[in-house]
């Protein structure tokens, strides 16, 4: 019994001990759980406190509230033509971004974007907690790489707007929470539509296509509101990785990605299963339009306009010694042209300056895309299809080509000097000099053949040649300048500064100046008409021997032999571009007064007041010549060229408007006399090819011009509705045709005008008519019964053969 009690007592002690152990163990578990919950709570509090600090910018970078409310938007400026087409953009780097409002974007783009990138976009406030949970459990814990990402569209926008590229683990670790907090703030300040709009305006789709508007244009050649479902899905598919899903280089891969987007749209109920099946079967078809400053229509015009907009007030010390004329031109433009230096002259309301690369300006130009296309076609057809092949044939096998082989005109020493200077103007030469290469090393490099791309009128071609040969090959191509303008308001309708902007960027309309030859004679004859001469005044058609102001004897040459020794009137003399009569005329007038006359016509060149000025040795630009000849088409009123009619800000608010600027340069009496003579030049004279070869019946005046050795060919033409001028020649004056068959203005330059006008009149969408006429008042005294003159087509066809003798040259 006692033993039993002892056992019972022992068992009770054991039970009490076990109970105490369990109690202690339970207490320990409760303590651990409490500790874990405490740690978890502290962790949550810590995370929230950390995010609070990030939200308020204490930790990491947080943009100021003002910047979040008004993000810095950088948009390319867009140039529009007079007929409402986009013709180019000004941007730097990857800044080709053009603003698109929400209602300018196809709903298909919005549906595709939300369905693919953020299906709960309408539900969250910047952070998608379900998405983060999916990433944590499926992607991180379970290793499912196809589970999708957790970034919302708002977070992606925050990254685009404010996140710099991260380097290092700590930097990358900080980036996400910062993006989260920025996203939360963005959701606070913007509506869902505004966030979508900002996102689509920010994304870089490659190929200088930043933003949905640029992307729609680059890849599909249309506005974003016109995108089809499959096109919208293609662009949204690129959002995942534009380099990997590049539709230009990886068509099939991008098509498959497009189909994934379409499947997501079907899953989200945005398209039907039938639509998904039919759209997925479509090939991926692009209308690719690469955007580059050198590509597109009117590149010379766009570059000259850029120069004008960004010009600074001219200071002589900023110009080189040989740039005196440029300084003069820029100084005149600064004072008289509101577009020249527009950025400097028109500050923003806050006093800062506009930036044409980032402020998204809308620039409304005067260019007509149809007429510009016709001008570019005319240049390519005449130079590429006719004149350039003839030049190649003439120079083939000629020592020293493309330079003249006439050593009396160009010595071998001078030619070698010109070639050496051409080498020095190349990037290769400058790079080697900067690297410390010797002259022998440079010469060896320029005479070592290598692979390169060269220009042809049929496109760039790959070839192998030495850099020196490539320099000479480039010089083989004839250059040109062509500009057409409305003589009533100065609107420039077409502007071609060279054969190809990608290879020949020197602008021969505004920048280049060449001797004008006989195109100067209308200024001389206008001056004479103002002084009381009439078209029927007669002079002896014999070579004059004139002693100039310095006592030098001047006996100009004449190209033709028609009516030598006879008395001829001024109408006949100008019609046939007779040099002798021009010389006799200036000898009775005053060279300084001729200089003043030409300056009144808008020519800013430094003109020497000498007798020979009447035959055109002055260097003048095509733009100046077109400006001057506008007076002949517009009742004696010269009009300055207008590049732009208006400039608006990114929101479409007009900042500046531009108006025509007219100057009277010819009196009424003198105007009708000179007009009648210039009409006769086309009807009967050196410019008759306009009629005989191009079938143009419009009433038009004009003047051809050719300089010594055929170095420059000119044609100036005008109708009541349009004035145009064209020049053709070599890069240097020593590069030219040997004979007048190809080298005169009627053969080199006039055909570009003829082809252009023929295309313009054939386009019925343009308001140009061959029935337009100049208005001669009743009873005007032109010193003759008729001012048109009789035209014998058979005789004229003989006179205007390839080696026509009617064209004048100057000494």
Automatic annotation (TrEMBL):
InterPro entries (alphabetical): Beta-lactam/transpept-like, Glyco_trans_51, Glycosyltr_51/Transpeptidase, Lysozyme-like_dom_sf, PBP_transglycosylase, PCN-bd_Tpept
Swiss-Prot/TrEMBL catalytic activity: [GlcNAc-(1->4)-Mur2Ac(oyl-L-Ala-gamma-D-Glu-L-Lys-D-Ala-D-Ala)](n)-di-trans,octa-cis-undecaprenyl diphosphate + beta-D-GlcNAc-(1->4)-Mur2Ac(oyl-L-Ala-gamma-D-Glu-L-Lys-D-Ala-D-Ala)-di-trans,octa-cis-undecaprenyl diphosphate = [GlcNAc-(1->4)-Mur2Ac(oyl-L-Ala-gamma-D-Glu-L-Lys-D-Ala-D-Ala)](n+1)-di-trans,octa-cis-undecaprenyl diphosphate + di-trans,octa-cis-undecaprenyl diphosphate + H(+); Preferential cleavage: (Ac)2-L-Lys-D-Ala-|-D-Ala. Also transpeptidation of peptidyl-alanyl moieties that are N-acyl substituents of D-alanine
Keyword Glycosyltransferase on entry: yes
Keyword Transmembrane carried by entry: yes
Gene Ontology, cellular component aspect: outer membrane-bounded periplasmic space; plasma membrane
Domain Penicillin-binding protein transpeptidase: 481-721
Alphabetic keyword roster: Carboxypeptidase, Cell membrane, Cell shape, Cell wall biogenesis/degradation, Glycosyltransferase, Hydrolase, Membrane, Multifunctional enzyme, Peptidoglycan synthesis, Protease, Transferase, Transmembrane, Transmembrane helix
Domain Glycosyl transferase family: 86-266
Compartments (UniProt record): Cell membrane
GO biological-process terms attached to the record: cell wall organization; peptidoglycan biosynthetic process; proteolysis; regulation of cell shape
Pathway connected to this protein: Cell wall biogenesis; peptidoglycan biosynthesis
Chain spans, region Disordered: 1-24
Family annotation (SUPFAM superfamilies): beta-lactamase/transpeptidase-like (SSF56601), Lysozyme-like (SSF53955)
Segments traversing the membrane: 32-55
GO molecular function: penicillin binding; peptidoglycan glycosyltransferase activity; serine-type D-Ala-D-Ala carboxypeptidase activity
Positions in coiled-coil regions: none
Family that this chain belongs to: In the C-terminal section; belongs to the transpeptidase family.
Protein name (record): Penicillin-binding protein
Organism of this sequence: Duncaniella muris
Lineage: Bacteria, Pseudomonadati, Bacteroidota, Bacteroidia, Bacteroidales
């Amino acid at each position: 019994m006692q033993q039993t009690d002892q056992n019972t007592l022992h068992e009770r002690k054991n039970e009490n001990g076990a109970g105490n152990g369990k109690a202690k163990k339970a207490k320990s578990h409760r303590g651990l759980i409490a500790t874990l919950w405490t740690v978890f709570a502290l962790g949550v509090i810590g995370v929230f406190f950390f995010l609070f600090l990030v939200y308020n910018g204490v930790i990491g970078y947080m943009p100021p509230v003002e910047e979040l409310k008004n993000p810095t938007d950088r948009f390319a400026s867009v140039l529009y033509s007079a007929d409402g087409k986009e013709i180019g953009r000004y941007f730097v780097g990857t800044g080709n971004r053009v603003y698109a409002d929400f209602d300018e974007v196809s709903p298909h783009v919005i549906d595709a974007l939300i369905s693919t990138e953020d299906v709960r976009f309408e539900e969250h406030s910047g952070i998608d907690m379900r998405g983060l949970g999916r990433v944590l459990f499926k992607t991180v814990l379970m290793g499912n790489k196809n589970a999708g990402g957790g970034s919302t569209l708002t977070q992606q926008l925050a990254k685009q707007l404010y996140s710099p590229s991260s380097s290092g683990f700590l930097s990358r670790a900080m980036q996400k929470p910062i993006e989260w907090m920025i996203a939360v703030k963005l959701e606070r300040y913007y509506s869902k539509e505004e966030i979508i709009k900002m996102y689509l305006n920010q994304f870089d789709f490659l190929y200088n296509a930043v933003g949905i508007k640029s992307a729609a244009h680059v890849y599909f050649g249309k506005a974003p509101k016109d995108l089809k479902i499959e096109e919208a899905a293609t662009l949204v598919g690129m959002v995942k990785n534009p380099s990997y899903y590049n539709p230009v280089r990886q068509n099939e891969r991008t098509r498959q990605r497009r189909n994934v987007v379409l499947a997501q749209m079907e899953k989200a109920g945005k398209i039907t299963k039938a639509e998904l099946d039919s759209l997925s079967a479509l090939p991926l078809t692009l209308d690719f339009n690469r955007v580059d400053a050198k590509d597109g229509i009117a590149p010379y015009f766009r570059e000259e306009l850029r120069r004008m907009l960004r010009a600074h007030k001219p200071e002589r010390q900023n110009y080189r010694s040989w740039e005196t004329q440029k300084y003069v031109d820029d100084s005149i433009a600064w004072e008289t042209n509101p577009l020249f230096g527009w950025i400097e002259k028109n500050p923003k309301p806050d006093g800062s300056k506009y930036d044409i690369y980032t402020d998204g300006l809308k620039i409304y130009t005067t260019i007509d895309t149809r007429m510009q296309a016709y001008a570019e076609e005319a240049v390519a057809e005449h130079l590429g299809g006719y004149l350039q092949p003839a030049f190649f044939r003439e120079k083939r096998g000629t020592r020293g080509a493309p330079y003249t082989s006439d050593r009396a005109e160009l010595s071998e020493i001078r030619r070698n000097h010109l070639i050496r200077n051409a080498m020095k103007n190349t990037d290769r030469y400058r790079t080697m000099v900067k690297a410390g290469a010797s002259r022998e090393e440079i010469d060896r490099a320029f005479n070592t053949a290598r692979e390169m791309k060269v220009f042809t009128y049929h496109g760039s071609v790959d070839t192998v040649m030495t850099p020196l040969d490539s320099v000479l090959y480039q010089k083989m191509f004839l250059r040109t300048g062509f500009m057409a303008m409305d003589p009533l308001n100065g609107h420039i309708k077409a502007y071609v500064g060279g054969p190809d902007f990608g290879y020949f960027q020197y602008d021969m309309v505004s920048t280049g100046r060449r001797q004008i030859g006989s195109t100067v004679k209308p200024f001389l004859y206008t001056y004479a008409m103002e002084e009381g001469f009439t078209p029927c005044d007669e002079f002896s058609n014999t070579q004059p021997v004139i002693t100039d102001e310095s006592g030098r004897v001047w006996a100009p040459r004449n190209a033709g032999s028609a009516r030598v020794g006879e008395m001829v009137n001024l109408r006949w003399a100008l019609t046939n571009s007779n040099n002798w009569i021009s010389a006799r005329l200036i000898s009775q007038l005053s060279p300084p007064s001729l200089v003043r006359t030409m300056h009144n016509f808008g020519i800013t060149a430094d003109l020497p007041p000498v007798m020979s000025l009447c035959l055109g040795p002055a260097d003048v630009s095509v733009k100046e010549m077109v400006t001057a000849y506008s007076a002949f088409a517009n009742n004696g009123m010269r009009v300055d060229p207008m590049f732009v009619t208006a400039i608006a800000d990114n929101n479409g608010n007009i900042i500046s408007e531009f108006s025509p600027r007219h100057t009277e340069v010819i009196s009424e009496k003198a105007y009708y006399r000179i007009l009648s003579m210039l009409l006769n030049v086309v009807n009967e004279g050196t410019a008759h090819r306009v009629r005989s070869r191009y079938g143009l019946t419009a009433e038009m005046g004009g003047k051809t011009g050719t300089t010594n050795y055929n170095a420059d060919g000119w044609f100036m033409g005008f109708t009541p509705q349009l004035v145009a001028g064209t020049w053709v020649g070599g890069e240097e004056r020593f590069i030219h045709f040997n004979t007048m068959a190809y080298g005169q203005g009627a053969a080199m330059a006039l055909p570009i005008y003829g082809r252009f006008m023929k295309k313009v009149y054939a386009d019925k969408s343009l308001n140009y008519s061959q029935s337009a006429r100049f208005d001669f008042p009743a009873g005007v005294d032109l010193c003759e019964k008729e001012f048109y003159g009789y035209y014998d087509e058979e005789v004229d066809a003989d006179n205007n053969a390839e080696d026509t003798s009617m064209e004048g040259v100057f000494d």
